[in-house]
Design brief:
456 residues; Urease, subunit C, domain 1; TIM Barrel; 2 domains; eight-stranded mixed β-sheet; five-stranded parallel β-sheet; 28% helix
Length: 456
């Protein structure tokens, strides 16, 4: 989220938004068979087609969404032992294998090589890759029934926002993103739980739950906040060290406050992701030992080199975030700092961010990872950021793909589980129509998605 603003506070109303789990292109819709029960009445789930459903009969207030699922036809019944053949395979670490066959047992890859034997899935001329990893999303952000952007910040909104989160998660997984880091919302926890338990399909979710901001308080209060969100299950600590770009992007936290946040996170074996636009806020974050910098729109060469020298990961969000805001301006305008002036500042920031990214590519050793800052309207379009980085930013297709696979996994400390195609790794696999090394827009043509050995 590029600055928190003040999103609207409307409750989830399934009678107004009846087909919340249908994909945006109206194909391969998630089919849910079951019953969702509310404290104030039953919600009936009625099929509208072979792959869709409609929800009726639930009151707005006190909705307790208990998902009693008897089947999800958005996920294929997958055998325990499967083989996949593709014309080419990119392993996520820079390797390319022609006519590759990957063998999977349960949720794990057991072999990668060649075979003339019949396979379970023959993907023809497609390219097989590791599932995409987006290190910066806001998976619970959505457009409410009034058409306005909404960030479910309050704990009691989790159940009301679950339907929207399910839609966002499914659209994201269907687009080829199998892991996301959501930075973050209390509503993420319920969504994370249902996906992890296999109740509904969606990407693996890591969440920060609630961020550290200038309103959190002094160093002592910041440490207490970090301990509290860690106890609730946070996978990472999100820290706002600067203003939104709509407000100028100036620093908001002192070095002492940042040392408290990132130091406490480190004590708890958690990573720290820092929202920072300008050189001063980034220098403070690096000095404080934080682990990743988000955005960095206003950074100069000296600061980019400092990030590289310190071994800190850098996630510049330069394309999709701006495009999505401009395309959905009417849904954001009037909320917090989403003003005409704020939109003008974002428009001015587009070429600045692009120049910064081009400069960043020249910095030796700078660990640039893939992240989109996907908010309401952007879920399921995540790879547009990668396409923009290649087409406009000048990043090589291979480096871009590595940034969204093995390097992203390493930044999340999951490099031994996801992000590459090799024996022992989790079977998160996607296949696209075409060769992304020759045409990066092939990422738009998703034809196969597997997460943890299960085919979508």
């Amino acid at each position: 989220m590029e600055g928190r603003g003040e999103p609207s506070t409307n409750e989830f109303n399934p009678t107004i938004r009846p087909q919340f789990l249908q994909s945006r292109d109206n194909t391969n819709k998630l089919c849910l068979r079951g019953l969702l029960v509310g404290k104030q009445g039953d919600m009936n789930v009625t099929p509208t087609s072979s792959f869709g459903f409609r929800i009726e009969g639930m009151r707005k207030t006190s909705a307790l969404l208990l998902l009693l699922l008897f089947g999800v036809c958005g996920i294929s019944a997958t055998p325990d032992h499967i083989t996949i053949r593709a014309a080419r395979m990119l392993d996520g670490k820079g390797g390319v294998v022609q006519d590759a066959v990957v063998t999977i047992e349960g949720a794990k890859i057991i072999s990668v090589g060649h075979s003339k034997q019949k396979v379970t899935y023959d993907l023809g001329h497609a390219t097989l890759l590791p599932g995409g990893i987006d290190t910066h999303v806001h998976i619970s952000w959505h457009f409410d029934e009034n058409g306005k952007a909404h960030d479910p910040e309050a704990d009691n909104e989790s159940e009301h926002s679950l339907g929207y989160g399910l839609e966002n998660a499914y659209a994201t997984l269907k687009s080829g993103i199998t892991t996301v880091q959501s930075l973050g919302s209390p509503a993420d926890l319920l969504l994370q739980k249902h996906i992890a338990e296999g109740i509904i399909p969606g990407p693996r979710i890591l969440t920060s739950i609630e961020p550290v901001t200038e309103e959190t308080g002094d160093a002592e209060k910041i440490r207490a906040h970090v301990k509290a969100v860690a106890a609730r299950g946070a996978n990472v600590i999100k820290i706002f060290a600067s203003q939104s770009i709509r407000d100028g992007g100036g620093p908001t936290l002192s070095v002492e406050q940042l040392k408290a946040a990132c130091g406490e996170a480190a004590e708890l074996h958690l990573r720290s992701a820092v929202h920072a636009h300008g050189p001063e806020s980034v220098r403070r974050a690096v000095e404080a030992g934080c682990t990743s910098i988000e955005h960095g729109t206003l950074l100069d060469l000296e600061t980019l080199e400092l990030i590289a020298k310190s071994g800190v990961y850098f996630d510049p969000n330069i394309g999709l975030i701006f495009r999505n805001y401009f395309e959905n301006k009417e849904h954001y305008l009037g909320i917090g700092n989403y003003t005409e002036e704020g939109f003008a500042k974002m428009k001015d920031a587009v070429p600045v961010a692009l120049r910064m990214f081009r400069e960043a590519l020249k910095v030796k050793g700078l660990k640039i990872v893939f992240g989109t800052d996907a908010v309401a309207g952007a879920h399921g379009r995540n790879f547009e950021e990668l396409i923009y980085r290649v087409q406009e930013g000048g990043q090589t297709p291979m480096d871009a793909i590595i940034s969204a696979t093995s390097l992203a996994a390493k930044s999340l400390r999951l490099e031994n589980e996801i992000g590459s195609i090799a024996p022992g790794m989790t079977a998160d696999l996607i296949a696209i129509d075409g060769d992304p090394l020759k045409d990066i827009t092939a990422l738009r043509r998703m034809k196969f998605v597997m997460k943890s050995g299960k085919v979508l």
